[in-house]
Amino acid sequence: IPMATLQFTFTDSATLCRPLSQSPSKSVVHSRTRSFVVKASSELSRTRRQFIAETTAISVLVPSQLAKAEETLSEWERVYLPIDPGVVLLDIAFVPEDPNHGFLLGTRQTLLETKDGGNTWAPRSIPSAEDEDFNYRFNSISFKGKEGWIVGKPAILLYTSDAGESWERIPLSAELPGDMVYIKATDDKGAEMVTDEGAIYVTSNRGYNWKAAVQESVSATLNRTVSSGISGASYYTGTFNTVSRSPDGRYVAVSSRGNFYMTWEPGQAYWQPHNRAVARRIQNMGWRADGGLWLLVRGGGLYLSKGTGITEEFEEVPVQSRGFGILDVGYRSTDEAWAAGGSGVLLRTNNGGKSWIRDKAADNIAANLYTVKFIDDKMGFVLGNDGVLLRYLG
């Protein structure tokens, strides 16, 4: 098997986050007891029998009608998975040519497959990924046509050309800087891969050769530009905490300590550092549907960038997160988005993020919700720890 050659120059990447629960609202039917004086009359007896029969029918009918209504109150449902409780779900993807066929990744070498749009999932075994010495953490998955890619930690790269019916392991150089945390299928036999040290590599031949898209590591960039006034960037030796890619190939990444963020656009030789525009440390950042940025701070704050594109100007948006941190935001459309966080926090906006309301669907789920991902405007999922998966009902 030929060894994949990596033409390095750079390092630094990202990690992902995700929990949820559903608390059905309780309907209470109050009943009153009344006593009747019944006269010895067949007509009155008939009336009383009719009254009892009718009120009994009502008492049976009303609760069932309320229960049926409750089933449609929430736009999410929990999908129970055949995995250990301690598994953290990390990514999900579907085959574009078969939208019912998808894969779900997680810690402890978790790989699940669905063929009914995410209603049910079954464990999937990949012989080439089974190693007695390692318990892989599958971080990211992406499909383009029938071609698919999976990356994980310790360093592992899997490739399929038949929509996931079979997977082959692509050998990687031991000199790969950092852990692979993100991969994006781009075109025929092509992909873009990011490590947690900020390296970006591209391939056009099924992963057998990789070319560096940046000319130096993030650490080198920061230590070279420390005089530019990036707070907390001097002698930087850490990694990215999160990485997010826009549809047009731009990246935004948050430092592991959350004290600054960096961006990269196709064609740039280096990552560009940015001071955070807020007092609290950054939890996560990503792209809005309109091309702007959203920013989450530790403790639950949510900010939106002014305008579109890369900027350092943000405005805070009021959110009710019950004191728990918000960990991720996913856009279903330009107007509708969902935010998820600690202890089952689930929020929705219908105006592009200007205001948010809480959905109580996950209040009773004792898990953190790390990732919100919409495959399209009809299919979405929320991934959490302890094997929690929520499916969008719409």
Please, could you describe this protein's structure?
The protein is mostly beta strands. The protein has 2 domains: 5-20 and 74-392, YVTN repeat-like/Quinoprotein amine dehydrogenase (Methylamine Dehydrogenase, Chain H, 7 Propeller), CATH 2.130.10.10; 40-72. Helices cover 9% and strands 36% of the residues. Strands 1-14-13-12-11 form a 5-stranded mixed β-sheet, with no helix packed on it. Strands 2-29-28-27 form a 4-stranded antiparallel β-sheet, with no helix packed on it. The protein has a 4-stranded antiparallel β-sheet with strand order 3-4-5-6, with no helix packed on it. Strand 17 and strand 18 (272-275) form a beta hairpin. The radius of gyration is 26 Å and the shape is globular. The model is unreliable at 1-49 and 51-73 (pLDDT under 50).
Question: What is the compact description of this entry?
Answer:
The protein is mainly beta and 394 residues long. It is built from two helices and 29 strands.
What layout of secondary structure does this protein have?
Layout lengths: L4 E3 L34 H29 L5 E4 L9 E7 L2 E9 L3 E5 L7 E2 L13 E8 L2 E7 L2 E5 L7 E2 L10 E6 L5 E5 L4 E4 L5 E4 L5 H7 L15 E6 L5 E5 L4 E5 L7 E4 L6 E6 L5 E5 L4 E4 L8 E4 L8 E6 L5 E5 L4 E4 L7 E2 L10 E6 L5 E5 L4 E4 L2
Parallel strand pairs: 1-14
Antiparallel strand pairs: 2-29, 3-4, 4-5, 5-6, 7-8, 8-9, 9-10, 11-12, 12-13, 13-14, 15-16, 16-17, 17-18, 19-20, 20-21, 21-22, 23-24, 24-25, 25-26, 27-28, 28-29
